[in-house]
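Notes to self after the call with IL:
- keep both proteins in one doc
- input above output, always
- annotate only the second one for now

Protein 1:
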Amino acid sequence: SPDSLAGRIEDCGSKVVITADEGLRGGKRVPLKANVDAALAKPGAGIVETVLIVSHTNADIPIVEGRDVRYGEAKHGVSADCPCEPMNAEDPLFILYTSGSTGKPKGVLHTTGGYLFWAAWTHELVFDYRPGEVFWCTADVGWVTGHSYCVYGPLANGATTLMFEGVPNYPDTSRFWQVVDKHQVEIFYTAPTALRALMREGDGPVKATSRKSLRLLGSVGEPINPEAWRWYHEVVGEGRCPIVDTWWQTETGGVLVSPLPGATDLKPGSATKPLPGVELQLVDAEGEVLEGATSGNLVITDSWPGQMRTVWGDHQRFFETYFSAYPGKYFTGDGCRRDADGYYWITGRVDDVINVSGHRMGTAEVESALVLHDNVAEAAVVGYPHDIKGQGIYAYVTLNVGVEPHDDLKRALVAHVRKEIGPIAAPDVIHWAPGLPKTRSGKIMRRILRKIAEGDVGALGDTSTLADPGVVEELVRAHKPA
């Protein structure tokens, strides 16, 4: 949006903006240049001196003389020979903005040597990359998954990387698999949120394609529930493709926890074990280290090459956000369970834990139970203030295509969760949701869902990183006080 772009320009002091006339997404044109113009008209963003425009749709766009330059014209007379610029390993490579639970988005700074090494090494190791293979990461290039595994990692390894402009359900829900067949993709890396959306459409759109080229499947962006994992493995991969369920963050630069294909036994829903050199611990709220099979807060006890170096322009915020909770350790903000085999199961953000009548439970557990129901495509669970229980369970539920919402189905879902987990986990409120507020990397913005559940719709905070801000408006309209 113009607002979010203006904020980023002001924060990092950009002098040049590169854009296209328009983008294409789901059959619609996205007015990229118009958004840039609107952003640069805002206070603080007027520092930009040059706007370089790539012609994509050849749309008729206004040109600001002395500022706007068309790439097609500027490239004439410029040599294609561009010698590499020697850089220090700790020189900044890029600043990528990621949403926080509070305040404005953080400018995550990654450096040239460490980040590039980590992106390249993890791309080769985790995906068992073999020279000549076609690698497809479906993430938006503007987000960290796209940075690391559309651009830097694959290209540093000389891989063929496929870049896709569009959405998985346009012009129809076979689109991903048609692209796989057309370009003979061997390695496919996508988000659970996309998989669940496609899963709700049934197996037909997948089985209408071959997918014989696929050798390895990957998952990224959020914990994948076992039901979606099995569908991915059995339907998309036909039971022959290993799944690397990867855990990492914008701040980590690349994958930290993942199975290694052919070397790690897989468990549906588990990211399995940390990569070599990644030192993890589980700690309790007081910072005491927890051993063996247990649940706790996930921290990292030593550095790794791809680690972010600072929050741009606010080094104090860097320390306060990541190192103040457990001094000397990087706090991921995620809760985690470690089983008897030493496998790690990410349970979601620590603030996604609900305390119901003194019983602590992860929202992911309730969500997985809801998604087990045949009529449910996706679910997101948050806590809200409850006069008796302290916190109640508020469930946003997206139904499969063709399923109509009704009160009998609400009662059936509550009974289903009681059966799967127990009475303590039964949702107090079920809110029918046509969609969930997500970032373009597929993360559900639970902060917004909590505010809606609490009825605090006037304080939803920053929504600039949402893929579809209109979803929030629909959820607010449908909200009924609990």
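Protein 2 (the one to annotate):
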Amino acid sequence: MSSFYTKSGVRLDYVESGDKNGKPIVLVHGMLCSKDFFQKQISFFKNTGYHAIAVDLRGHGDSDKPLEGYTVKTYASDLHELIMELNLQKPTLLGWSMGSMVIWDYFDMFPNEVGALICVDQSASDFAWPDWKLGVMTTNDLRDISEITQTDREPFYKELIDLMIHEPNEKDSEFFLSQMMKIPPVIAEAIVLNQTYQDYRETVKKINVPTIILFGGDPKLNPPAAGFWLHEQIKDSEIKIFDKSSHCPFWEETDDFNNTIKSFMDSL
């Protein structure tokens, strides 16, 4: 594991695998999660000729947990600093869940510095705006989450994990929970609130680099319809549904997922 300090002094931890001279792919995790969710992808890329990097966003995993900066745009800016430090040229950016929002903001800010996008199981907005039927969160939901995150978060996280996995099992659930519990409650609340109110319906229409959209077929957390909406908005994008997965196809259908992203990168 390696570390990098942003200009604001925040330490970000990351892991690398593969050929450092190969085409780069940067993997960005979801809300309340960590780079270790991509352990099966980091292992896969060791012998593919590609250069894979997975990072813990600020406040997550083993990275620093300052008292400020918990906005998706800040995560994107942090990511840009890391990519510049590693001298990665037009990387493929893979974002899962909130990580997709991070790479959409990254593209919006640095459109000429992105090679391709891989968007995994994330709607253009999680909030149920009056004109957005694919949003799943309401103001009342956020009020309840805000309170429970501060008072009794472990049962809430366990319920969330059951939604994330198509067929939950004790080993996976314990790992997911261990990563979520690394985040202090006050930071977790800030992360959830900022992420949920983001709206990328207009941003994604600007995407003009090769893009593939990967969704789980089990709609327990995000409906596949949200993926097809993205597919319709992003010109020349590809889409694939993993029927035996919920929110985590990279974890639940690892071989198919890894081969899919490698084939996509091979085509670039």
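Annotation: The first strand starts at residue 2 and ends at 5. The mean pLDDT is 98.
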